[in-house]
Inverse folding.
C-alpha cells in the first residue's frame, strides 16, 4: 500500500492564509474585517471553512494564537494547564495590540467541566484574550456558553450558495493546475456539485486523483470513487492478515485518527455505493458502528485503539455478512 501522507495533505497545503483567500459570503467577511473584536463562535455543517477562517483571521491581523482540537482535548486540565498559561504569558513575539487568540475547534465535544472552567477563564482574561470556537452542532453548545460569544452562521443562503459555488469551481481548477492535473469542465462542475459545500471532501478527492497518478480528470473519474483514504476502505474489504492491516493503520494513520473516523462515516459510505453495491444493505449497521466509536473516543486513553477497533469492527461486518 502506498504512503499517501508522504507529502503535505491538500487540506493543509491549500488552506487559506488570509481573508482574501477565503471563499465566504460578504456578510462573514465584513464581520471579520476589523479582526477578532470579541469572542466568536462559528457554526455550520462540516467543511464550510470555519477552522480555516479562524486561522486565517489570526494570520491576517498577526495575532498570536493557540489552536486546540477540543474534540480530542476535552479535559478540564486543558483549561488550567494550557489555555490559562497561554493567556497569562506575555511574549515580545505577540502582536502590538497585545491580544492573544485561543481557537477551540469542535467545541461541541468537550466535557461539562471544561465548559464551566472555560466560562471563568474567558471572563478572567477578557482584557487580553479572545476566543474563537467552531462547532458542527450548535445545539450541543450550552446556552450559557453560547451567550459569551457572537454567533456567526457559516451555512449559506440560496443566493450565497450560487456565488460560493462559482468560487469553489475556480479554486478547484486552480489547485488542479498547480498540481499538474487537467480537469474537464463537466468533470469540474460535477465534482464540486457532488461535494458542495464541503471543500475538505473535495480536496480529499483531488488528493486521491493525485495519488492514483491521474493527470487528466474526466467525468468518468468523478463517477468513480477516488479519495485520500481509499486504501483504508480497500483494507476493510481485503483478506490480508490482521497483523499487516494493523501495521499499516498504525504507521500511516496514528496521527489522523479523527480524520479516519470522520471519513468512515461519510466518504466510506460513498465508496460502498460506487464500488461495493452488494454491500449497500450494511450501510446502516456501519454508520451505527462508526457513531459508537466516535462517541467513545473521548473516553479512551489512546485514540489509535478507537480507530483500530472501528476499522476491524466494520471489517467484521462486511466480510462475515451472509
Amino acid at each position: 500500500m502506498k504512503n499517501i501522507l508522504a507529502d503535505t495533505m491538500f487540506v493543509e497545503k491549500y488552506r487559506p492564509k488570509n481573508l482574501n483567500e477565503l471563499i465566504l459570503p460578504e456578510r462573514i467577511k465584513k464581520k471579520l474585517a476589523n479582526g477578532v473584536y470579541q469572542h466568536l463562535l462559528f457554526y455550520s455543517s462540516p467543511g464550510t471553512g470555519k477552522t480555516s477562517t479562524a486561522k486565517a483571521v489570526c494570520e491576517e491581523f498577526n495575532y498570536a494564537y493557540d489552536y486546540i482540537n477540543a474534540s480530542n482535548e476535552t479535559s478540564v486540565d486543558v483549561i488550567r494547564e494550557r489555555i490559562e498559561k497561554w493567556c497569562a504569558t506575555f511574549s515580545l513575539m505577540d502582536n502590538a495590540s497585545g491580544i492573544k487568540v485561543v481557537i477551540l475547534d469542535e467545541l461541541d465535544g468537550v466535557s461539562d467541566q471544561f465548559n464551566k472552567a472555560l466560562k471563568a477563564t474567558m471572563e478572567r482574561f477578557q482584557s487580553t484574550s479572545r476566543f474563537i470556537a467552531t462547532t458542527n452542532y450548535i445545539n450541543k453548545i450550552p446556552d450559557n456558553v453560547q451567550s459569551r460569544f457572537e454567533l456567526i452562521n457559516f451555512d449559506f443562503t440560496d443566493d450565497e450558495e450560487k456565488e460560493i459555488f462559482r468560487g469553489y469551481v475556480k479554486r478547484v481548477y486552480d489547485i488542479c493546475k498547480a498540481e499538474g492535473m487537467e480537469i474537464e469542465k463537466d468533470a469540474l462542475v460535477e465534482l464540486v456539485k457532488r461535494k458542495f459545500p464541503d471543500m475538505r471532501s473535495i480536496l480529499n478527492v483531488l488528493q486521491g486523483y493525485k495519488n492514483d497518478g491521474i493527470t487528466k480528470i474526466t467525468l468518468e473519474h468523478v463517477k468513480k470513487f477516488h479519495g485520500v483514504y481509499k486504501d483504508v476502505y480497500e483494507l476493510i474489504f481485503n483478506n490480508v492478515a490482521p497483523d499487516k492491516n494493523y501495521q499499516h493503520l498504525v504507521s500511516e494513520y496514528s496521527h489522523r485518527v479523527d480524520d479516519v473516523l470522520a471519513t468512515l462515516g461519510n466518504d466510506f459510505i460513498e465508496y460502498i455505493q460506487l464500488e461495493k453495491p452488494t454491500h449497500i444493505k450494511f450501510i446502516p449497521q456501519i454508520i451505527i458502528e462508526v457513531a459508537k466509536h466516535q462517541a467513545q473516543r473521548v473516553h479512551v486513553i489512546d485514540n489509535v485503539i478507537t480507530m483500530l477497533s472501528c476499522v476491524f469492527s466494520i471489517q467484521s461486518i462486511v466480510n462475515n455478512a451472509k
